[in-house]
Amino acid sequence: MASLKIIKFPDPVLQRRASSVEVIRPEERALVDNMLETMYLNQGVGLAASQVSVLKRIIVVDVGGGPIDLINPAIAARIGSEKAKEGCLSLPGIMVPVRRAKKIRYKCLNRDGKLTEGEAEGLLARAIQHEIDHLEGRLIIDYVNPVKRFFLKKKILKNPQP
Ligand code: NI
Prior knowledge:
two-stranded antiparallel sheet, 7 strands, globular, Peptide Deformylase
């Protein structure tokens, strides 16, 4: 396993849409392992492949219940909604409130290419929704109003991260 470089805002790759994974090869499985290692090393609860410059629809999440990897994840149902503050490894030092579904049902492929369905709620549901946003090129600062976004971007660009 190897840890990967997490790209930071305003890297334009973060705003691009990731492509579906057609075939899960050893390369994709190695990517999942490396993404998990990178997530743990950086004390994150989730990571999308886009954040390590790979525009494939792969995310990993662990909110304390063990690692989950989701390939081509899709949300099949959203139940309820709640607002809570979120951070992002690609936007260090920034926390913004984001409204998300409280509970979701999702579909994805697992690393063996098997179609998997699951339910998630609370922090796990929030993390999955946050990471799927990355696959669409959507970041947490896209949820704040334009004035607040302007000041957040200014704050980020004043303290560039390696
Ligand atoms: Ni993020």
